[in-house]
Amino acid sequence: MKDILKWHSSREFFYWHLKRRLLERQLKRKMKPVTHNCGGGRAQLHVTPLAYMWEDDKAMVQWLTEQIREDSMDNAVSDNIRCLQREHVLQQVRSLIQDNPEVAMDSIVHITQHMTPSQRSEVTRILANMDT
Questions:
Q1: Which residues, in sequence order, are CB contacts of 72 under 8 Å at separation 6+?
Q2: Alpha carbon distance 66, 63 (integer Å)
Q3: What is a single molecular function from GO for this protein (predicted)?
Q4: Cα dist from 72 to 66, 67, 69, 76, whole Å
Q5: Cβ atoms within 10 A of the Cβ of 70, count?
Q6: DSSP letter, residue 75
Q7: How many Cα atoms are found within 13 Å in the side-chain-facing hemisphere of 68?
Q8: How far is 83 from 35, CA to CA, in rounded Å?
């Protein structure tokens, strides 16, 4: 809040302001499984870049409502959540391999068994180029 509110428009202002905060909270809850080890500030950083230029609460509510809809998978929020999930899984795998280096080879074998032939050939090419 940057300006002094006029009494006659305060109810509408606070309605949209509260609705925005509730939708942002819902979005953070959606992101929590993949940002639980980041802390609240980091989760806020994942919401803020999506909406940094929006100062109009009403416009932001409309945008967030579109983004949070369950049937909508092709939007900025869903893309961000998928990216965070991917980063989270990769970090878990890295951590497990670093903590248990003796299972690295077994893990590679197991992972390659679940790949398509083209993915396996790509992995082979990458591994061959690592030595050079």
A1: 66, 78
A2: 5
A3: acetyl-CoA carboxylase activity
A4: 8, 7, 6, 10
A5: 6
A6: S
A7: 18
A8: 11
Provide the terminal-to-terminal Cα distance of the chain, rounded to the nearest Å: 58
Q: What are phi and psi of 117, to 5 degrees?
A: -55, -40
65: nearest Cα among 11, 13, 20? 20
| Higher pLDDT among residues 123 and 51, named by residue | 123
- The candidate with the shortest Cα–Cα distance to 55, out of 15, 14, 1, 18, is 1
| pLDDT tens-place string over residues 74-102 | 777 778 778 888 988 899 999 999 999 99
Task: Indicate the SS3 state at residue 69.
Answer: coil
Q: How far apart are CA 76 and CA 63, in angstroms?
A: 10
Residues 6+ apart with CB under 8 A from 119: none
